[in-house]
Amino acid sequence: MTVYAAHQPDLLPYSGFWHKMDKADLFDVKIWDQYNRKGYQRRVTMRGFWVTLPLVKGSDVVPIATRQLAPGATGHLADEIVKRYTSNGPRPPYWDKYGPMICDEIVSIRTDLLWELNFRLILLVRDILGIQTPLTFSRPARSDLRGPAGIVSVMQAFPGPLEYLSGTGARAYMGDCHDFTEAGIPVIWSRHRATTGDSILSVLFDHEDPMGVVRAEHEPGHDEPGPSSTSTTTESITNEEQVQP
């Protein structure tokens, strides 16, 4: 079976995102999911502090694909990365290897679309990590289908048979996985063992072998609570899959 995983195009997301991508045979980037103002398309923690992209003011009840960056957003992001990783204490051990290159890439990106900036950074980090999983953009889910039913409807457009690889944060809305069972789609749960809820940048800058961190797993049967358990922020940043229309 082909292992299918999916996620919104988040901003430099934590290691669990990359664990799913690495384990999947196909990774679906969900640009047509609804934008979530309190989600992680525009923000991520770095060293336990939120870094947030400025956006053009507008409705938040829109697809991620339509949200626009405010002028200067890429420069702001690059400056925040430098600030969070180099201004408070010694530079992390692998900053010189990755930091300037990543910041240069960020400021070179010319787009006014949030999803496109995030996707370009996903491609950059995927190449740094050496992940070979192909990426795809699926069609939007039917407007009358939500949550698991919507995911199943999207998956049925791909050649089968498929298995669905899900982060454990989705258990809250997937329940007994009835929609997947009815469709004949097995669900497998990520066993990723996160060392931090921070951006993947913390893993790149701190560890000689970042893919070893990305591929770390709990023993079977261990219930991984998600990145909020290791984050130093007071707000949970668990975002395995959002509940989408």
Folded structure, characterized:
With 245 residues, the chain is of the alpha/beta class. The chain has one domain (2-229). Helices cover 34% and strands 11% of the residues. The protein has helices at residues 15-23, 73-86, 95-108, 114-129, 147-155, 171-174, 178-182, 200-206, 210-214, and strands at residues 2-7, 26-29, 43-46, 49-52, 135-136, 162-166, 187-189. The strands form 2 sheets. A 5-stranded parallel beta sheet has the order 5-2-1-6-7, with helices on one face. A two-stranded antiparallel sheet has the order 3-4. A hairpin with a 2-residue loop joins β3 and β4 (49-52). α3 packs antiparallel against α8. Mean pLDDT is 90; it is low at 224-245.
Strand percentage, roughly? 5-15%
- Overall SS class: alpha/beta
Question: Order of strands across the biggest sheet?
Answer: 5-2-1-6-7
State the major sheet. Answer: 5 strands, parallel
Q: Return the domain count.
A: 1
Low-confidence stretches at least 5 residues in length (pLDDT < 50)? 224-245
Count of helical regions: 9
Helix content: 25-40%
Distance between the termini: 27 Å
The mean pLDDT is 90
Order of helices and strands: EHEEEHHHEHEHHEHH
Radius of gyration: 17 Å
**How many individual β-strands?**
7
Shape: globular
List keywords for this structure.
245 residues; alpha/beta; five-stranded parallel β-sheet; two-stranded antiparallel ribbon; 11% strand; disordered C terminus
Layout of strands and helices, then pairs:
Layout: E1 2-7, H1 15-23, E2 26-29, E3 43-46, E4 49-52, H2 73-86, H3 95-108, H4 114-129, E5 135-136, H5 147-155, E6 162-166, H6 171-174, H7 178-182, E7 187-189, H8 200-206, H9 210-214
